[in-house]
Structure of Acyltransferase:
Amino acid sequence: MLGITRFILALLVLLSHATGSNFHFNPGVVAVIVFYFTSGYLMQRSYRRFVSHSTTPVRSFYTDRFLKLFPQYGLVVLASFAAIAWLGPAQHVLFLNQPASLEKVLLNLALLPANYVFEPLTVERLLPHPIVPPAWSLAAEFHFYLLLPTIALLPRRAFLAVLAVTTSIQVTALFFGSGPFNSDNFGYRFIFGALTFFLFGYAHARREEPGYAWIPLALWLVYASLLLVVAPTFGLFSHPFVMELLLGAVLAWPLLSAALGARPDNVWLKKADNLLGRLAYPIFISHFLAFFFCEKLLGFDQGQQGAAIPASIALSLGISWLLLRLQTSIDAYRLRRRGFASMASGRLGSAA
């Protein structure tokens, strides 16, 4: 049931943005952490298959990830700038009020710079934010993709050294609520700390190999101790996203295990799981565009009261369905090109 799980996580991200800052607890952050862990797990398994089946596994893996994720993202970037030019800048939707320039369009399409819109590491020309606001986290994920072939070559001790460095950066950042080094930027957003979540999932995928079984358990215990003991003792929950970050890290492993362990027997449920899993990514990248159209075409503001939230969800689903249809032919080419099917032919296929 991984597809349904990913769909629910994408909806949590949508809802966390739709409700603005009305909640002190942000479920979207929890969802992003679970996404990161899941990506680490799935991409380790995926890259291992490229190593087994391809004579150029690194290039083939990079190309596959590009074809899987970038066409939809690039289309949403261009559609967002076009919508602003057509309907005018948003009054109530965050960041969809930026005038288009060739430089800004290219920086957004490049994607990797989108992770650097937070102090102290900022690409000034991309400010105030990517035109696809969640793109900063997608950029963090692409950083992980770029690093993965090197990570896969590391012997266990070197892997542990990298994990120790990233975990130290992240955990130390949790003790700072402001300043250039804090729980928001280096704890949650920048790859320097966020890499820990990916490596957590990566280690879980290798748990049956000698010397790896204890690593995800040790990390889980670290996060659980931080959540239940350290953070309350030192008042860390007052720092940005510490509660959400730690809760997401603690929930990620059991959620993924439960999702992978639930194997639907009904054909319709298998189809629903596959479809909803494939809709998760386009919902994640397109929901701000849906908010924009709700404001401009339906007259809703960012308060998202009354029928605005279901309208935003419905419109986001509609946009996502169109993106999914356009992606279908690309996916057919992608699978032919790489020469092997998605993992478990549907059970993990929505993510592979």
